[in-house]
Amino acid sequence: MSYLLQAVKRTAKGEKTREEGKLPAVAYGAGNEALSLDLNYSQFTKLFKQAGESSLIDLEVDGKNIGKVLVQEVQYNAVKGTPIHIDLRRIDMNKAMQAPVALKFMGEAPAVKEMGGTLVRNIEEVTVECLPKDLVSTIEVVLTTLKTFDDAIKVRDLTLPAGMTVVAPHGDALVAKAVPALTEDQLKALEEAGKSADITKIEVAGQKEKDEAAAAAAAEEKK
After folding, report:
1. What's the whole-model pTM score?
2. Contact criterion met (CB below 8 Å) for 141 and 106
């Protein structure tokens, strides 16, 4: 799918642009000078919902196509949560590049459906390196391979398009795993740990608590 973003060169300060209902932006990179731009607010927000940060966008400035860009950064109003400034990274189509790509989880894990387990997704995106022509917006993760609680999907297991490699996180990083139904304490621990949580450590911690409780109970019975 192709995307087109139209802009005009900006001469006023970003604050003045926002007062006029426009969205200030800057386009830089690929050996070109930085360009201060005005974007149509509605056009950008609609396009960004579709393209995200992993899709190449044709940038048109004052009616002239100046090449491909990626949305590098979006700054938001701290109160309203609306975009207030956009960074666009210009792309050299002949050089390898790095970009974040979202993971798209497909199907249902048999260990969840048939064994009552809980699916834990540990990573939501990876950073890839490839030529711009090989960049994709998402990488599919097929969950049907998780048939037992011993199965796991790691970064090295991802099926990548030709010409693409993952540069972060490392290949042994856990993407998804089905685990026995978590207790409320384990779910809370997972939530507090955030996306970078190590599922195996949370499981071990939970088991340790169970073992300690069992040992305490056994000791009490011997008294």
Report:
1. 0.73
2. yes
CATH code of the domain made up of 4-95: 2.40.240.10
User: Which residue do the tokens 């030709």 mark?
Assistant: 162
Average pLDDT over residues 61-79: 95
Q: Where are the beta strands (DSSP E) in the chain?
A: 4-9, 22-29, 32-40, 57-61, 64-76, 83-90, 97-106, 118-121, 125-130, 138-142, 152-154, 165-168, 174-179
Length reported for the chain:
223
Give the span between the Cα atoms of 157 and 222, in whole angstroms.
Answer: 49
Residue 123 neighbours by CB under 8 Å, 6+ apart: 103, 155, 169, 173, 174, 175, 176, 195
Pairing outcome for strands 174-179 and 152-154: antiparallel
* C-alpha Rg value of the chain to the nearest Å: 23
Count Cβ neighbours within 10 Å for each residue of 203-219 and write b for 16 or more, e otherwise: beebeeeeeeeeeeeee
* Domain limits, the chain: 4-95, 100-218
pLDDT tens digits for range 17-49: 888 889 999 999 998 999 999 999 999 999 999
Q: How many CB atoms lie within 10 A of CB 52?
A: 16
Enter the tokens of residue 122: 């540990």
Which tokens sit at 109? 């894990």
Evaluate whether the domain defined by 100-218 bears CATH number 2.170.120.20: yes
